[in-house]
Specification:
Residues 123-150 form a coiled coil. With 245 residues, this protein is mainly alpha-helical. It has two domains: 5-94 and 116-173, no CATH class; 199-244, no CATH class. 73% of the residues lie in helices and 2% in strands. The chain has a two-stranded antiparallel ribbon with strand order 1-2. Helix 2 (17-47) runs antiparallel to helix 3. It starts with a helix and ends with a helix.
Length: 245
């Protein structure tokens, strides 16, 4: 806006939009500061932290909360300042103030005393545009708040989903581990049963009956099943099935 035609028009009317915006921003800063000072005082009374070690912790906590809110507020106010300067405090292209009449050369203009229909029409146009901009600003603000709420809900949903997935994976791993332990225990029990049968009174009978292709298959009993090969174990299983039959 600086150096533009709009600035010249406002200067001629002794108006300074930037000064108005700065005063509004300063007012908001003072309001936020007073609000958090009051909040700190009330919190200290409720929590009874005055003249205690927790007093400094409470002060740091209030400052941290204020900084978070101030950061979000500054972003919105910055957007409001840019929008106001580029849309609210601009005049239509080709707009010009009437030249002063009279020898005094006074450049001030009495807005209420203007009887120029063309200028009155332009002023009405500006008023309507300002009203429209205000409505658009309110609508944009509502949309921004809706997006912020949606973003917050999405963040909560993602966090919940992540937590659920972690719990699912943890339970899955635990179930697999328990299943592996049960399988190992069952396998150990079966091996012990087979070993006891191998060392029982039926062992000589089993050795004599295991004849295939004219050869006698033997298993080394010095080290039990640990010294047997896979083929020997399979043959042992087949022989046990034969004995049961």
């Amino acid at each position: 806006m600086e150096g533009s035609e709009s600035e010249k028009v406002f200067d001629s009317l002794n108006l300074n939009p930037q000064l108005f915006i700065n005063e509004a921003l300063n007012f908001v800063d003072d309001l936020v500061g007073d609000a958090f000072d009051f909040f700190h005082q009330e919190a200290a009374k409720v929590l009874k932290t005055e003249e205690t070690d927790r007093s400094e912790d409470l002060k740091k906590g209030v400052v941290n909360v204020k900084n978070i809110i101030q950061l979000a507020l500054d972003k919105r106010l910055s957007m409001w300042e840019k929008y106001s300067l580029h849309h609210c405090f601009t005049v239509p292209q080709g707009f010009s103030l009437p030249k002063p009449e009279g020898p005094s050369g006074d450049s001030s203009v009495d807005i209420n005393g203007i009887e120029n229909p063309e200028l009155a029409s332009k002023l009405d146009f500006l008023r309507n545009k300002l009203s429209q901009v205000g409505k658009e600003s309110a609508e944009l603000n509502r949309e921004l708040q809706a997006l912020e709420r949606q973003s917050m809900l999405s963040g909560c949903s993602v966090a919940s989903l992540t937590e659920a997935l972690e719990l699912y994976h943890q339970l899955s791993v635990n179930d697999k581990f328990e299943e592996l332990v049960r399988t190992a225990s069952d396998f150990h029990t079966k091996v012990e049963k087979l070993t006891s049968r191998m060392e029982g009174p039926e062992l000589p009978r089993a050795k004599k009956s295991r004849i295939s292709n004219g050869e006698l298959y033997r298993i080394n009993n010095d080290e039990g099943l640990l010294s047997a090969t896979i083929e020997e174990l399979q043959e042992l299983v087949d022989d046990i099935k034969t004995l049961r039959d």
